[in-house]
Amino acid sequence: MKKKSHLLLFIYCIFLSTIALSKDIKISMNEFCPYHCTELDGGWDKEYPGYAYEIYDEIYSSAGYDFKAIQNPFHRGMQSANTGNVDAISGPIKIKSKHESEIKIRQNKNTGTIYSQLIYSKEPISLYHSSCFFGKSDMKWNYKGIQSILSYKTAVVKDFDYGDILNRFIEVETSKKSSPRVQLMFGKDIQLRNFKMLMSGRVDLVLADLQVGLYTINKMEKKQQLKKGSLKLLGCTEEGQRHLYVGFSPKRPKSSRLLAQLFDQGIVRLRSSGKLKLILDKYGLDDWALEN
Fold first, then answer.
1. What is the C-alpha separation between 126 and 107, in angstroms, rounded?
2. CA 112, 117, 118 angle in degrees (round to 5)?
């Protein structure tokens, strides 16, 4: 009986030590395929959850963490990272100047100040080309400066960076009570909703990241939500090409610096081992380090 009691005590101690050693990491992500992808029911896509999702899972699971992807619109994810409700947010840009910081604050007073407070990874998670225009396949149009879009209504995403010139244009237009030129979008399934508005004629242009736009159109065509060849890429501006990073919570600086270091080391390891290429190949993408 004594031996049995000792055995039960030993098992219980192992159980407690396992709980003590278990670590969670919560990363906020918006629906932004192919970075982070959801299914029609709103849950993460089980087969193709997104290449950034798979990278985080690989890096932090290998380091002994229980990775949890928390689905939030981008602006809410920024707030959650700032307050410490999540450990990090996927995909913010690094603010490089006071001018950029002022623009972000004007764009969104609630999240603009957070950019300078986050603890960032040194390694990027992507090379982002936000300033790409999409339209109907029969549209003959090229971007030639702001004057060329004044006669059209363009769908854009709240809090996203499109480069100085387009940022200023969007800021002026969205400050109006009702803009005939800009449709500001936020919430879930933004790109899907944007392209549906484009097809229905509610907007004339969609401004989107190159990868996101092409991937969304291809996915909609495969699911027969869109007739093949009905939408196309009209072109991209020279602005809006920036690296995206992982922004860790300033509420737990010591823990955040450790998590950032693990991410940086993990990206280097995945790249050298060839695992990063395998993940990106699955989504038809190239390593952003090769795109510079």
1. 23
2. 100
Q: What is the maximal distance between C-alpha atoms in the chain?
A: 87
Contact 77, 89 (CB under 8 A): yes
Residues of the chain with CATH 3.40.190.10: 2-125+245-290, 128-241
Domain 2-125+245-290 fold = D-Maltodextrin-Binding Protein; domain 2 (3.40.190)
Please give the CATH architecture assigned to the domain spanning 128-241: 3-Layer(aba) Sandwich (3.40)
- List the pLDDT tens digit at each of the 292 positions of the chain: 555 555 544 544 444 444 334 489 999 999 889 999 988 777 899 999 999 999 999 999 999 999 999 999 899 999 999 999 999 999 999 988 887 888 788 777 788 899 999 999 999 999 988 899 999 999 999 999 999 999 999 999 988 889 889 999 998 999 888 889 999 998 778 888 999 999 999 999 999 999 999 999 988 998 899 999 999 999 999 887 889 999 999 999 999 999 999 999 999 999 999 999 999 999 988 999 876 5
Task: Indicate the residue type of 173.
Answer: E
CB-based contacts of 104-110 (< 8 A; 24+ apart in sequence): 104/159, 106/171, 107/158, 107/159, 107/167, 107/170, 107/171, 108/75, 108/158, 108/159, 110/75, 110/79
Convert 220-259 to b/e letters by CB count within 10 Å (16 or more is b). Answer: beeeeebeeeebbebebbebbbbebbbbbbbeeeebbeeb
Bond into 92 cis (ω within 30):
no
Q: What is the pTM of this model?
A: 0.79
